[in-house]
Amino acid sequence: MRQPITPPAPSVHGTRAALAAAALWAACLPALAQAPAAPDTATPGVAAPAAVADTPVQRGRYLATAGDCVACHTALGGAPMAGGLAMATPLGPIYSTNITPSKTHGIGNYTLEQFSAVLRHGKRADGALLYPAMPYTAYARTSDADIADLYAYFMQGVAPVDSAPPATDLPFPFIRPAMLAWNLLFHNARPYQSNAQQSPEWNRGAYLTQGLAHCGTCHTPRNPFMAEDNGRLLAGAELGGWYAPNITPDANDGIGQWSPQELVRYMRRGIVAGKATTGGPMAEAIDHSLHQLTEGDLHAIATYLLSLPAVSDGARQPAFSWGQARDDLASVRGQPVPALTAMNGAQLYDAFCASCHQAQGQGSGDGRLPALLHNTRLGHANTNNLVLSILQGVPRYGRDSIMPAFAQELDDAQVATLANYLLQNYGNPAAKVHAEQVHSLRAGTPVDQRLLTVVRWGLGLGVLALLLFGIWLVARIRR
To answer: 426 near 361, Cβ under 8 Å?
Structure first.
């Protein structure tokens, strides 16, 4: 008997926009290169914990949770795993597919081999290549045994939904056959290979971080072709407007001054007093995925992350170390209240923030309402997360949300004024927010006709250059 999964709550989908952007660049590469061979070999020592490993379906359910499949493949208000979520890109939406076992519109007719090809090679049963909006580049690290368990879960543990999501139809030259070039250049389909010099816990953490948890998808910067820059693995990246911070063990730029227990607590709850509070795509990943993993798996991820080479960007102190308790509200309370458009930073803070974050920015005594001081949201030089938290709030999924959205109450200039007041008083005073930045983040990802025109002209000129070179070469040979 099938046991349907629980539908997710609405998503902010910053990660999805990032993956979709990678897909656009991937689809217009003009050249081919040879990639390393990728044998499909199983990897010992990285099996799911015994606590969740009674049957293939149960193991598969746990693995699908680790992979956060439901977040992308469930549309707002839609059936679980039935697809239809639109991921915004500068050239139009990419829609997630139906991955229920429906035989008409889902993957119900897929064999295990075809299912494995999707995860390991980004190749559908009909032979079409996927855009890397589906992170098969990370899922390829999954072992054959775990892919078999995932297959059992999707075929037996997910309710079939006989509905077709909208088809993705990106304009030329962003076509699926071009993905062959990108895959040959940048995709390694080899499963994770255990490191005999490391402990089983370390290997389990590496397996999850590199694979199903796909941490690098957000936290690793991209090269000009939107492939992950492994020379700066997990060193932080701006994706979909949100900033995914450096999670290498650098003492100032990364997580070098976090303990393993603090990292586990953050992945479990999204709040660590004196360090950070979650929001945006990371809150989504915690609520849909990470908080459901076993304590052992979360410790394994923490162990692996803290063992990696540190990558520094030159920060003078950790992002969580900025700020001190400060109360400016006495200077504005008891004074005539100006129009909203004329309020300064202290007045905006008093009107919109102080009731939860308190007069000195210290938050609530029980920690449920976070402090603004010693909070990475206000300590990073990149201020996008602060702006987006004000605009979108901090929705949580399956638990109480801790902050409402103010996009409807505050205009761009007011958000900038408030954010700069917060940074000056409780965060990194060198960081700045500009009204133009707020406007851009509020607008999201509009369709960019100029980008399409530039890419088409570039492709056309490239084809013309190749044609002229061919004519010259033929003429030279005939001489």
So the answer is: yes
φ/ψ of residue 239, rounded to 5:
-140, 125
How far apart, in whole angstroms, are the C-alpha atoms of residue 306 and residue 297?
A: 14
Here the tokens at position 441 are 């983040």
Bridge partners for 95 per DSSP: 86
* The one-letter amino acid at 20: A
Q: Going residue by residue through the chain (479 aa), what tens digit of pLDDT does each one get?
A: 334 333 334 444 555 555 555 555 455 554 333 333 334 444 544 666 766 668 999 999 999 999 999 989 999 889 999 999 988 766 678 899 999 999 999 999 999 999 999 999 999 999 999 878 889 999 999 999 999 999 999 999 999 999 999 988 876 766 777 788 889 999 999 999 999 999 999 999 999 999 999 999 999 998 877 789 999 999 999 887 899 999 999 999 999 999 999 999 999 999 999 999 999 999 999 999 999 999 999 999 999 999 999 999 999 999 999 998 888 887 877 788 888 888 999 999 999 999 999 989 999 878 788 999 999 999 999 999 999 999 999 988 877 777 999 999 999 999 999 999 999 999 999 999 999 999 999 988 655 556 556 666 666 777 778 788 888 888 888 77
DSSP 8-state class, residue 36: P
CA distance 425 to 360: 9
Q: What single DSSP character describes residue 222?
A: B
Looking at the structure, give the CATH architecture of the domain made up of residues 319-443: Orthogonal Bundle (1.10)
251-281 in b/e form (b: 16+ CB < 10 A) is ebbbbeebeeebbbbbbbbbbbeebbbbbbb
Q: How far is residue 123's CA from residue 136's CA, in Å, rounded to a whole number?
A: 9
Q: Are 60 and 134 in contact (CB under 8 A)?
A: no
How many helices (H) and strands (E) the chain has is answered by 18, 6
pTM equals 0.85
Nearest to 95 by CA among 66, 128, 130: 130
* Dihedral of the alpha carbons of 244, 381, 436, 438, in degrees to the nearest 10: 50
Domain ranges of the chain: 14-305, 319-443, 448-479
Report which residue type is found at 109.
N
Whether residue 193 contacts residue 140, with contact meaning beta carbons closer than 8 Å, is answered with no
* Per-residue tokens: 24: 């656009």
Burial class of 393 by CB neighbour count within 10 A (0 to 12, 13 to 18, 19+): middle
Tracing tokens 């149960």 back to the chain, one arrives at 58
Residue with tokens 């458009």: 341
Q: Give the separation between CA 109 and CA 115, rounded to whole angstroms.
A: 10
